[in-house]
Amino acid sequence: MHGKAEFHGGEFDSAIYSPPWDSGGDERLRARLKIATNFERPTTTEDSPDSLFDEGLAASPIPSDIAVVGDMEPASSCAPPIPGLFFTPSLLLPPELADQITEFCLKQYFNRPGVNQIMLFGAASDSTPWSGMPPILLELLASMSVLLQPSLPPEIHALLFPRTPTHARQAILNLYHPGEGITPHVDLLKRFGDGIVGLSLGSSCVMQFARVEEADDNVRPKQLFLPERTMIVLSGDARYAWTHGIEKRTTDLVGDAEPFRIVERGVRLSITFRWLLASEDVVGLEVTEP
């Protein structure tokens, strides 16, 4: 992980690709991210594998060969056949809500140089006087629940969005600049439970999935293209038996057949919700605002 993190409760078309789902709202969101994060980028530090910050961001300097297109494997816009992974590329968070969340997060949390990761903790019941989550993230959870319900099995939807939560919830906010990524990992088994849902804002990226057990050499890593405002769900095997990560590069190669498309990365804000196991409930800790 780099920088500073804080607690809070073949042949292909070489042209840069402009995704068809772009809208005026997305353009404004990307512009706001670019302006608000125009800080000097932090240096790299190493953390223990047992750190709560298990999604360490890989920082600059960027290797000179990082954007060589010939070394990239094309990423699909369709979810790979991994049990427990759910992703629908056409299912997008409304641009107005995406813009509101981005503006709030940038002003509230990413308003100083070097801060690129924030963790928030919500109590097991949102009816408590202090839930730990800002209202806008509770609104986001409610919106995601409605949007994802038609595409999820009932038991998975209930796992992610229970009527009465029994565990504390964590929200981790990561800010990525072009060329940054995540080392392949499985979220900490002794700290987080099953059921993870993530959202991309401001920019797309490609997420790579690889089997934890490599007994079958024929199982190649899977490349999945995540457009901005899309949501991804990891449960079961996708959560426990496959690693997920993001390569350090400034562009991605996308397509299920030639000609492939080159998609340029921008500044990306990711928001991921996870369940804390009972033994790791740290919601009672009071943390000062940045």
Automatic annotation (TrEMBL):
A Pfam family it matches: 2OG-FeII_Oxy_2
GO terms of biological process kind: DNA damage response; fatty acid metabolic process
Protein source organism: Mycena alexandri
Record GO cellular component, one term: mitochondrial matrix
Cross-referenced PROSITE patterns: FE2OG_OXY
SUPFAM superfamilies registered for this protein in UniProt: Clavaminate synthase-like
Protein name as catalogued: Fe2OG dioxygenase domain-containing protein
Domain Fe2OG dioxygenase: 164-277
GO molecular function, one term: 2-oxoglutarate-dependent dioxygenase activity
